[in-house]
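call fold(seq) -> C-alpha cells
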Amino acid sequence: MFDPDIAPSGTLLGLLQRGRGDGPLHALAADRAEALAALEQCVLRDPRLDWRVESRSLYYARLYSDLEGPLDGIEQHLFHPDDLVAGDEHRCGLALSVLGHLAGYGRRDALRLLRRYAATGGCWQWALDELALRDDEAGLRALGPAVVGRFPRTPEGDADLARAVREAYEPRPWQLWAEDAAHPGTAERVRKAGEQGSFDRWQRQMRPAGPTPGWSVAAVLAWAEEGLAAYPSVERDQPAARCLAAVAGPEDRPELVEAARRGPSAARAAALRHLTDRRDPDRLDLIEAAATSTDERVQRAALESFERLRDEEALTRARVWARRTDALGSAAARSLARHGGAQDADLVLAALRRIVQTGGADAEGLDALVEGVGRIAEGATGGEDCSEGQLTACRAAPVLRHVYRETSSSQLRGLTAQALAAADPGFGAGFAVECLWDCEEATRELAAHRAASGDVRVLAQLRRLAADPAEEAEVQTAVRGRLSSGGSAR
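ret:
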C-alpha cells in the first residue's frame, strides 16, 4: 500500500491527516491561513494508509465549509498536466470526493469543477459518479457528448465504451444519455454500448473459467506448483486447497502429510491449508514447523490456517505459543484475542504491548489485539465474575490511549475507541467528546452514545450531526436517540 508522510500527532497537520476529531477543533481555533494550508495538503496528498477502508472526504468537506475555504488549490491539482499523462485515482480520488460533498452542501464552484473535470480530466469516471449522486438531469445530460466523445468511433473505442458502461458504479448518467433526444448520436452509441456489454457478459459466462487441475491429489499439488512457473506467476495454494477438499480421501492422507512437511512451496502451502481445514490430528505440529519456515508462502499459509481455528485444542496450543516473540506468537495472541476468554487477558495485553513497542501504533495485526482487549474488557464489565479481565482492562487503558493518539489508521483508531469505551472509565468525558468530529462513521456513532454531555460542545455537535443531510443514517439514528433522551450518555 501507499506509505504517506504523516506529521506528528500533536500538530494540526498530524491531527487532520489522521482524521481525528481534535483536528477540526484545532483548525477552527488556529490562524485561518495555517488551517487552510494544512487542510489543502491533506486533500491533495491523500494521507490514508488504505483509502479503500478509511474515510476522509466528508471530514475534510465539512472543514472546508466551516473555514469557507477556496477551491483554487484543488482546481490546480486536478488540472495539472500530470493528470493527462496518467489518470491516478490515488492522486485525485480524495479531492474529487471532497468536491462531491461540497456540491452536496450547495457549493456551486465545487459542482462546476466536477463537471469540468468529468468532461476533460483523467479520472473522469470518479467525477461522474460524484455528479450522478448530486447533479440535476440537465447538468448530466449536457455532459453526455463530451464524455462519450472520449471514445473514438473505432472497434477499440466502441469496446472501451461498452466496458465503461458495463463497469459504471453509478448508472444514472448513462441511462439519461441513452434516452437523450437532444443528442441522438450520443444516445445511439450509449444504447449500443449497453447492448454490447450485456452480450459480453453472456459470453464470459459461457467461456471456460481457465486452467483446472486434474482429478487427483498429485495433479492438484502439481497444478499449484505450475502457477509459480507461469508468467506472471499465479498464487494457487488457496484454490488448490479447495480442490483438495473435493478430490482427497482418507487413503490420500499420508501423501498430503508428507507434502505439508517437506513438499515444494505452493504444494506444501496447499496441503497445509487442506489438512488444517479438515482438522487433521497432526495439523498443529505441521503449523508449528511451517511457521518457522524461511519460505514466506508456507509461513503465511501456516499462520492464516491457524488463525481460522477456534476449537479448544487450538486455543490450548495458542496459550503456549502466545509467549513467543515471533510471527507464530503474534498469530497465537490474535487467535486468543478473537476466541479466548478472560483467562487469556494477560497474554493478549502482553502481545499488544510488545507489538506496539516493536512495530509502533500502525504495526500489522494490532486491530485484532485491540478488539480482543476491548472484548475481554466488555465481558469483564458485563456482570460476570471476571476479576482477571477487569484488572487487565484497567491496565490496558494506557497503551490503548497511546494507539488512539498515534495511529495513522482511522479504522484502527475507531476499534481502539471501542476498546477504550469498555476499558477506560474516563472515555466518556475524554476521547469520546472529540470522537463526535471523527472522520469515521462508526466512531461518531460510538461518540453519540458515550460522549458526556457536561461538555458544552457535545449537544451543539449532536444537533449539527442530526441536521446534516450528508451524515450517515446510523449516526443520525444514534444522535436523535441521544437528543430525545435529553443528552444523557449510556
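The radius of gyration is 27 Å.
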